[in-house]
Amino acid sequence: MIHELDSVVLTKDIRNLKLARGDIGTVVLVHNRGEGYEVEFMTLDGDTVAVTTLFPSQIRMIHEMEIANARTVDLLAA
Q1: pLDDT band at 77, cuts 50/70/90?
Q2: pTM listed for this prediction
Q3: 3-class DSSP state for residue 15?
Q4: Which CATH number applies to 7-61: 1.20.81, 2.30.30, 3.40.50, 2.30.29?
């Protein structure tokens, strides 16, 4: 079960928010016992990229033996 403050992995691209499959976010709110999750995605230096509500099918828990990867996101692009 996913709880508030858990780190989660995005399972699908959300292009309009500049989020890509594999991005790691933090759950900031659990809606209706897990029917949805408010998740914040941030750059490694602390800038928020997006805070959005996601369905359980759009995120997953981090698995053992996974390694994080970095990518560049343009926060100023329209």
Answers
A1: low
A2: 0.92
A3: helix
A4: 2.30.30
